[in-house]
Amino acid sequence: MGGQFSGGQFGGSQYGGGQQGRHAGRGPKGYRRSDERIQGETNDQLTQHGDIDATEIMVKVTSGVVTLTGTVEDRSAKRMAEDLAESVSGVQEVQNQLKVSPSGSGNGSNMQNERLSRGRLPSASCFLFSAFCLLLSASCLLLSVFSLLPRLLS
Fold first, then answer.
1. Most buried one in 79, 80, 104, 107, CB count within 10 A?
2. What is the pLDDT of residues 13-72, one digit of tens each?
3. Quick one: pLDDT at residue 104?
């Protein structure tokens, strides 16, 4: 009589293998995923993520609370690491203590792009912009003087 549960009736195609549906993620009463499994999966996902350099990230898990420490290149990597940790099954909370590296680990272009996206210009551009404004102001002053000159002379 081994045929009652064979052929995929439970866990097979008829019931979808239990991976999707309205009860996904709701385990048996009293079940809690171990801290070691949460830490392992978090480390694996950080390692596999294409936009996060996880070489300076440390993951600690205590009672389902994930603590991320270390340094990352930029704020977006910090946010991505936190989001990734929150997505791991069994995580109750994420404490993101990651620091953004002051110099970044790239060639500096990421830092320059981040400055530009926040509305700050690099120092050379600031200098050129200031020089342009000064010339514009001087031109306006000269035009004002020349327009008043005929009135003053008459």
1. 104
2. 455 555 678 887 788 998 899 999 999 999 999 999 999 999 999 999 999 999 999 999
3. 56
Asked whether residue 44 falls in the same domain as residue 87, the answer is yes
- Residue 71 is assigned to a structural domain of this protein: yes
Q: Is the pLDDT of residue 83 over 70?
A: yes
Run of H or E residues at 58: strand 57-62
Task: Using the Cα atoms of residue 128, residue 129, residue 134 and residue 136 in order, give the sign of their dihedral.
Answer: positive
Quick one: how many helices (H) and strands (E) in the chain?
Answer: 4, 4
Residues 87 and 36 in one domain: yes
Shared domain for 55 and 76, answered yes or no, is yes
Please tell me the pTM assigned to this model: 0.56
Query: Given the structure tokens 């996060």, which residue do they identify?
Result: 52
One-character DSSP codes across 116-144:
HHTTPPPHHHHHHHHHHHHHHHHHHHHHH
The answer to whether residues 79 and 142 belong to one domain is no
Question: Strand 93-96 and strand 99-100: pairing?
Answer: unpaired
